[in-house]
Amino acid sequence: MKRRVLVVSADWVGERMAGPAIRAVNFARELARRGLEVTLATPNEVEVPIEGIRAIRLQGMDARGTVALARQHDTVVAQSLPVSAMVSLAGTPTRIVYDLYDPVPHELLAAAHGRPRRAQDDLLLTRVRLTLDTALRAGDAFICASERQRDLWLGALGAQGRLDHEEHRRDPSFRQLIDVVPFGIEVEPPRRDGPVLRGVLPGVDERSRVLVWGGGLWNWLDPLTVIRAVHELSRRRKDVRVVFLGLRRPNSRVAETTMAERAVSLAHELGMHGSSVLFNEEWVPYERRGAWLAEADVGVSAHFDTLEARFAFRTRLLDYLWAGLPIVTTRGDVLGDLVEQERLGVSLPAEDVAAWVAGLESLLDDDQSRRAACERVAAVRQRFGWPRVVEPLARLVTEPGRPIEHARRSRLVGVREGYLSARISVLERGVGATLAAVWQQRVRRVTRLR
To answer: Global pTM?
Structure first.
């Protein structure tokens, strides 16, 4: 009988996807290709079938429903679950593998930086910490995106008492407890299949030097330095364009970031909006992003010098490797350091506009250096193919679950999570909308029970 695996996506799955959904979909695909019976659970209705995978919708499912669904499978792979569900599943025959590739607490700290302190920011951080604390206690195994992240989570697991004699006897390397599963890319590189940038976007033609920003504009990223560098370049040359592939997150329920607004405002302020700086309002469909990347000259990404950057794994930066693009980025995160070590482009100090100007020109004006960087990118690309990076996860999901006695904490942690969620909702949406949402959830639950 095939081993049944449930992969839970933390974000919307569809034509346009952010990192968490892309990762979940590819996990599901690769595990199914290894002969496992895979179900993909998503917050939304998946309109386009995914070959070999059963998709179900999680929206409105409470902790009890989540536990019931999980118990129908041998293994669950999830970034998080409702806290009370985590507690209920701990030590059961269903094996739970938590994916820690996205250090959410660090993102929340960076997202709130520079704006007036809000009560909901503190509550949200408290709720996320509660979820993470429960996952570290209750999970059978864990994965993360880099060795640097693994060091972080080994420290956290040690603080939770998970690095004990029993675990050491089982595996002194602790790879059976937590291993590295980087974000991946398709094995075959993208190809140009018709113009999407050149001759289509205003002012972008075959002579243009196109920089592409492939991911979102989150508050912890720094598109402002890139825009300012392009403005400096535009004073002495008219061929440089930077294209941002998407402003609005695919999940419409997630609020737009202030950084996206700041980037657009700066482009207007510098008189570059719609000319040297172009924003694609909606995210490029996931299956079409390769066509956009294939027409670019350089992939760019920038961030601030923060704790978030230290442990980040810039998922869309890998798309530049996939497309064979030389990369200009900020140093300090894992992939920024990889760019520097492997000479895949240029890695620069945070918020240094002059360095960005010099770094961009060094690639745009030196065809030999750019070709050499592209050749090195092609060699490194092979390390990140989805079939290869998923190997440790495929091993972890097929091991049996085991009792975790210290994970069975008071069921009151679930009550605490609900209390925090309610307070956040009241602050953001008001009492009436919160009560309406609670009532709708109760109605959906009663309907399912019938």
So the answer is: 0.86
